[in-house]
Amino acid sequence: MAPKITATAKVGTLANDIDFPKGPQDTVSALRWSPKADHLAAASWDGKVYIYDTTNVATGASIRGAAALDGGQAPFLDCDFNQVSFDEFRAHMDVMVYAMDEGNMIAAASADQRIHIMDLNSPGQIMTLSGHTAPVRSIRWVDIPCVPNPTGLLVSGSWDKTLLVWDPRRQPNPVAKVTLSERVWAMDGSGPTLIAGTANNKLQVFNLGKMTQGNAITPDHIIDKPVGDFPIKSLAVHSGGSFWAAGSVGGRAAFGYADPQKTDKTFTFRCHRVESQTKDKLTEVYSVNSVAFARPPDGGRSGEKIVLATAGQDGTTNFWNIADRQRLQAYPSVGGSITACGFNWDATLFAYAVGYDWGKGYAGNSADHPLGLKLRKVERSLLR
To answer: Topology of 10-379 in CATH?
Structure first.
């Protein structure tokens, strides 16, 4: 069922979007915000991860560039700041204790089949992990409660059809391996939930909270064709891990719950399709290159909207209220494909990358294709 496009849905403006300083020399494949500061990491096909400080940003000149992680000639396909969001229950207190977020390390997934990690406190020191036999498509820091000191664990998803779990303190070997049925196209996680979207159009949903020491890591359940017959292009897990969103190459997105008992509540909707004005009335379909949830201001405890952003090959972004199945705001095309997007830790800022997404093959690329990073300040009224 598609979210209703209500008459109150607003058309946003690009006039106030802020340009980042010159940085990536090629398409940005992923954007990730620090969990506790207005620091943004951008993984690029030019073989670097660029890190920016957007604290108190007013203009592009006030965005400060920090050290970049240089991986050499191979493209970076994903990146992530270390972060902790696991819940520890104390039986004698009946309270939930939240571990502090980190955000002092950046890990990047490279086409050179390796993972590169940089400590932002010592930017000249880069750790490299090797274990995959094909390009590493996705990387996420995760929390596995059964493992001592879970703050340092990584999961990498590769085109070699595996997920590897790493403890950087025990390098160079992974501490666990998961063999999948196909290549990893996209991956995301939050809290106990980790989801990998694979090339055979399936979502492999892992509940890390059910693991015990020494147990093999296996999917809690598998969702087949979450966005219909079109392959998965992008994936996001909401803060806390309760639900997910996926985008497809067919101009549609899907929303669902991580709980296997709620798979019947999954729905899809059109978001980057345009009805042609020609006599043939054809539908122009664009890939949903990126999806991103906004973290609720108080963690979702007071029933705010579930706000999801979708960004597409058509150069547009949309903000949706998934809870009410409505589009909140639509933004016009920026003139080139949007390849990645994301909200910062308190959803006051929204960043997106413009570049060529190879949706039309080599013939569609050109030297004058738009390239760059943009920042948009988010109206608080959209979240409440």
So the answer is: Methylamine Dehydrogenase; Chain H (2.130.10)
Q: pLDDT tens-digit profile of 248-300? A: 999 999 999 999 999 889 999 999 987 776 667 788 899 999 999 998 765 54
Question: How many whole angstroms separate alpha carbon 78 and alpha carbon 35?
Answer: 16
pLDDT digits (tens, 9 = 90+) for 229-238: 999 999 999 9
Q: Single out the residue of 83, 97, 207, 96 nearest to residue 140, CA to CA.
A: 83
Burial of 91 (0-12, 13-18, 19+ CB in 10 A): exposed
* Residue owning tokens 């392959």: 231
Question: Which pLDDT value is given to residue 76?
Answer: 97
Residue extents of the structural domains in the chain = 10-379
Q: Report the DSSP beta bridge partners of residue 237.
A: 244
Residue 144, Cα to own-chain centre: how many angstroms? 20
Q: Are 288 and 242 in contact (CB under 8 A)?
A: no
Burial of 255 (0-12, 13-18, 19+ CB in 10 A): buried
In the chain, which residues have pLDDT < 70?
Answer: 1-9, 84-102, 144-152, 211-216, 277-279, 297-304
Residues 366 and 380: their CA atoms lie apart, in Å, by 38
